[in-house]
Amino acid sequence: MIQVSEPIVRRKLSDEVFDRLERMITSGELKPGDEMPSERVLMERFGVGRPAIREAMQSLANMGLVNISHGERAKVQKVTARSIFRQVDLTAKIMLSQSTDSLEHLKSARIFFERGMAREAAQRAKQSDIAELHAIIEQQRASLGDAEAFISADMQFHTRIAQISGNPIFIAVSEAMLAWLREYHTDMLIWTGKEKFTLVEHEEILARLAANDADGAEAAILKHLERSRSLYNK
């Protein structure tokens, strides 16, 4: 009896349509902002029925490649680092909710990432960057007692450091990790006086950035994040 070692798997029509539409986008045939061809045009071009076209289009939308609005032709979306992270936002939060280890891994990843961001920022920071970071600290100081506002300013401070790099991927990573961690930020920060430690540590980080001291900035942010690590719990 012949053993079949490489069976041919029959694919759904919608998967074939998806592949062809994806190639139209990645090849540049369809560019960000362009309208997708109508269902009728695609049906005639690929020789398939309406259900296969609609299922393929929905798959493209789920991946963030096209935007589907009721009553309008679907449009090709511009894919950015930020939009990619938005696609996995819910999945990431579910992963964190299901495993304590995942939350600890995220904390460690954040520390590793922000140490590098602090060094990069210290080497690139301009006076305007320093002034904006100082304004964020003052905004945070004015928010003492208001947990939501204080935490929002805290996130803004760290994201602003990533923005100094000028790298949109770094910025998107920073925004995503902070948003995921915010789900687990406890009231310990506000109600036990630890918010004052945060302000002092932010001021020290800022001082090192202003002095273009990469080693000092890395050490200051490491101290800050290791101390605040316990504030994020399930």
TrEMBL record:
Could you list this entry's UniProt keywords, alphabetically sorted. Answer: DNA-binding, Transcription, Transcription regulation
The protein's GO terms of the molecular function aspect are: DNA binding; DNA-binding transcription factor activity
Q: Which residues form the HTH gntR-type domain?
A: 11-79
Instruction: One Pfam family, please name it.
Output: FCD
* Cited InterPro entries: GntR_C (IPR011711), TF_FadR/GntR_C (IPR008920), Tscrpt_reg_HTH_GntR (IPR000524), WH-like_DNA-bd_sf (IPR036388), WH_DNA-bd_sf (IPR036390)
PANTHER family given in the database record: HTH-TYPE TRANSCRIPTIONAL REPRESSOR NANR (PTHR43537:SF53), TRANSCRIPTIONAL REGULATOR, GNTR FAMILY (PTHR43537)
Q: What is this protein identified as?
A: GntR family transcriptional regulator
Organism whose genome encodes this protein: Rhizobium subbaraonis
